[in-house]
Design goal:
about 300 residues; alpha/beta; three-stranded mixed sheet; 10 helices; 10 strands; about 35% helix
């Protein structure tokens, strides 16, 4: 057990959080949405408290044409459905070669059923955290249905309280809320693309994500995606596992956050290096003090020139 002046847990609503962020701490770490992150940073700025923000966002899963589709779909299903998608680095949407979308959907659905053989009633599939967020996600689905987006449900239409069935949405329009906000739930938009340049451009036209997942067996396409996109981190041919490597720095960029932690970077983020200089008995700096002597002028001309 830690004493209360070292570790304490304080619970409360947004008002408690707002007041907490306004206290004069040495450093604040916040994980949550981009919108709330802005409010935390604003409250901390009153005291010039430095902040580390880990804000998630819309992390893409790019399936290159060279990818093993079965392996890619299984990894994306794992990343999307773990904790019902309520993870900051969960794949938010998938970019898939247009001609392989149907095959990807079949493989994703098969992987989802294999990983959760009990469906919604199985012990490994969890519920959405609150009624508010469940209603938000159901609203995304309803909006998509009204726009005639094709929706595939690997577990069927079964509903069990706040346990929300996984849903694949094919090529939803960009103006849907689903495509604007971080999903944070078991809904997977699948967007088709024709060329790798098009997929890279699609990612770069959107806010910088916390994670980018790339599935490719081709070294050239891996190099191009890594070099030509900006994200907090990259995971190649898997999902979520970059979070488990404790000596890799973790953090976002731009709308997905600021600052780094985990491993050495975490120690440096939450520490302050205090530089200390101690002058010896013989201090040559005293020869630089005014009034300027002939020797100082001579040294100036020698080393600086005039």
């Amino acid at each position: 057990m830690f004493p209360a002046d070292q570790v304490a847990v304080i619970t409360g609503d947004s008002e408690v959080g707002r007041e907490f962020a306004g206290l004069p701490f040495d450093h604040l770490l916040f994980t949550g949405s981009t919108a709330v992150g802005r409010e935390v940073m604003k409250a901390a700025s009153v005291n010039l408290t430095p902040v580390t923000l880990e804000l998630g966002g819309k992390s893409p899963a790019l399936v290159a044409s060279s990818a093993d589709l079965r392996t890619a779909a299984a990894s994306i299903a794992y990343g999307k459905l773990t904790n019902a998608g309520q993870i900051c680095v969960a794949p938010d949407y998938a970019l898939v070669p247009r001609e392989r979308i149907r095959e990807f959907v079949e493989q994703f659905a098969a992987a989802a059923r294999k990983q959760y053989p009990g469906g919604l009633e199985g012990p490994d599939y969890t519920a959405i955290i609150s009624d508010r967020h469940h209603q938000r996600l159901m609203g995304h689905l309803e909006e998509a249905r009204k726009r005639d987006v094709e929706i595939i449900l690997p577990f069927g239409e079964t509903v069990s309280g706040r346990k929300m069935p996984p849903a694949i949405l094919l090529n939803p329009p960009d103006d849907l809320r689903l495509m604007q906000d971080e999903i944070f739930g078991p809904l997977l938009p699948v967007v088709g693309y024709d060329t790798l340049d098009e997929a890279i451009r699609y990612i770069n036209e959107r806010p910088r994500p916390l994670a980018l997942y790339l599935f490719s067996r081709d070294g050239e396409s891996r190099r191009r995606v890594v070099d030509q996109t900006i994200s907090g981190g990259v995971c190649i041919n898997d999902a979520l596992t970059q979070l488990a490597v404790d000596d890799l720095p973790f953090g976002g960029i731009g709308p997905s956050g600021m600052g780094r932690y985990h491993g050495r970077e975490g120690f440096e983020t939450f520490s302050h290096m205090k530089p200390i200089y101690r002058s010896r008995l013989f201090n040559p700096a005293r020869f630089l003090r005014p009034p300027a002597s002939a020797v100082q002028h001579w040294m100036g001309r020698l080393f600086i020139g005039s």
